[in-house]
Design brief:
Elements lengths: L25 H15 L4 E6 L6 H16 L1 E7 L6 H16 L5 H8 L3 E4 L5 E4 L3 H9 L1 H11 L6 E7 L2 H5 L1 H17 L5 E7 L1 H10 L3 H4 L1 E4 L5 H14 L6 H11 L3 H14 L7 H23 L7 H13 L4 E3 H7 L2 H4 L2 H11 L2 E3 L7 E4 L2 H13 L5 H7 L2
The protein binds adenosine-5'-diphosphate and magnesium ion.
Length: about 400
């Protein structure tokens, strides 16, 4: 082992993970590869990748695209849809992405003919291109997107066997019924035409977003194959920390690895924050348990500032609500609870207005009802929030948060 710790952290909070640190997800990768193979053989494949924020949807989609390219020759187009809310804008972004990806390819000349005059170069050296069709052209392209993709397919060289399109973070699209209708028509038209259509279309978003999309058009549920990402098992979390620190030539004790894995709750986003904080707290390549605890404590600050503050605190004014949010994880170790039971365990002063609190939290998307589990059953929508409030609860009070974190089992 080297005597000093390396300069750069192996963790990448907020960035898609590199291939050599990609942990778990074997089953989902296999599933996505089967779809890619089916697409490469000429059959349109449409799937929805669900899972909470920070669980690794973008990373998995990129990883799968990469393998689909290497193994099946599908050209990856990763389109960040975000809040843009119309099928037209989705189509524009997809073609824009194609132009950017293909720009430096020897076959670009053939494909660029299809874009006509609507490709603009950006910047003095024209490294960047942008697709800017007129509104009526864009409506036409959206309506005939199946034809557009077919025509593009014809101009691609032989080694490019099809397209692997990822529509990432489709929150905005799911809001309006237009996209659901568009998707259904697109899939039906491709099926009716019956010709080869070597395209894999992978949508990604949270389960809430998927449900919203399906609610606009019930038959959309039937055309979407589901791929779900659950939190890592504790074993996978453990592997992640071991591999990452090992790659940096650093070593943690076995209990410290377990503690870090337990605190990340199987959420890759949180695992990277915790790993990065431990890296910063470490004074040398051999990391002490105390440094690991310090890292975990400081990671919860980072998570609070970066994620929870934006998603929750900026929308809650009431200090009482915040302290109620912190008290739930202390009383319910799983983040799931029955209203009546929790109410009984709360301090009498916190009980007043509890139902208003619940209603408000459901409206904000912090808590949700577990309808299948029965009336009065709730849980945190995002594991990240639950883990954050749990560590807040542990940190609040007592002289040494690091000690108290060490006591969590
Ligand atoms: N399989 C994985 N192995 C290691 N790190 C991962 C994995 N999946 C995601 N991550 C990391 O977790 C964080 C969140 O991942 P991301 O793909 O952006 O999640 P999502 O798109 O679901 O919000 C990123 O920092 C990413 O590097
Ligand atoms: Mg993402």
């Amino acid at each position: 082992m080297p005597a000093v710790k390396p300069d750069t952290s192996p963790f990448t909070p907020g960035q898609p993970v590199s291939e050599d640190l990609f942990v778990g997800r074997l089953e989902q990768v296999r599933d996505l590869l089967r779809k890619a193979r089916s697409a490469a053989s000429g059959r349109l494949s449409v799937a929805f990748l669900t899972g909470e924020r920070g669980i690794g949807k973008t990373s998995l989609a990129q990883f799968a695209s990469q393998v689909a390219q290497e193994e099946q020759g599908l050209l990856p187009l990763h389109v960040v849809v975000g809040n843009s809310g119309t099928p037209e804008e989705m189509v524009r972004r997809t073609l824009d992405r194609l132009a950017r990806v293909a720009r430096t390819e020897p076959w670009w000349r053939r494909v660029s003919g299809l874009f006509g005059e609507r490709i603009e170069t950006v910047g003095r050296f024209s490294f960047q291109v942008r697709f800017r069709p007129k509104p009526d052209e864009l409506s036409y392209l959206t309506e005939h997107f199946d034809l557009v993709l077919r025509n593009i397919g014809r101009e691609l060289p032989e080694e490019v066997r099809g397209l692997h399109i990822v529509l990432d973070d489709i929150n905005g699209l799911a809001d309006s019924p237009d996209f659901a209708r568009w998707l259904k028509t697109f899939v039906d038209t491709v099926a009716v035409e019956g010709e080869r259509f070597p395209v894999c279309l992978l949508l990604a978003g949270t389960e809430q977003v998927r449900r919203k999309l399906v609610s606009h058009h019930e038959s959309v549920a039937r055309i979407l194959d589901l791929v779900h990402l659950a939190p890592w098992s504790e074993e996978e979390g453990h592997d992640f920390f071991r591999q990452a620190f090992q790659s940096a030539g650093m070593e943690l004790t076995e209990p410290a690895l377990r503690l870090a894995a337990r605190f990340s709750g199987g959420l890759p986003a949180l695992a990277h924050e915790i790993g990065d904080a431990i890296f910063r707290a470490a004074s040398g390549p051999s990391v002490s348990d105390q440094e690991v605890r310090l890292g975990i404590v400081s990671a919860t600050h980072v998570v609070g500032n970066r994620h929870v503050a934006v998603q929750v605190f900026e929308r809650i004014r009431s200090g009482r609500y915040r302290s109620l949010l912190r008290s739930i994880p202390k009383l319910t170790p799983t983040g799931r609870f029955r209203r009546k039971e929790l109410l009984e365990r709360l301090e009498p002063t916190s009980r007043k207005g509890f139902d208003n609190f619940l209603r408000e939290m459901v409206k904000l998307g912090v808590l949700e009802r577990r309808l299948a589990a029965g009336p009065g059953e709730y849980r945190f929508v995002q594991n990240l929030h639950f883990l954050y409030f749990l560590s807040e609860a542990i940190r609040g009070g007592g002289p040494s948060p690091a000690r108290r974190i060490a006591d969590v089992r």
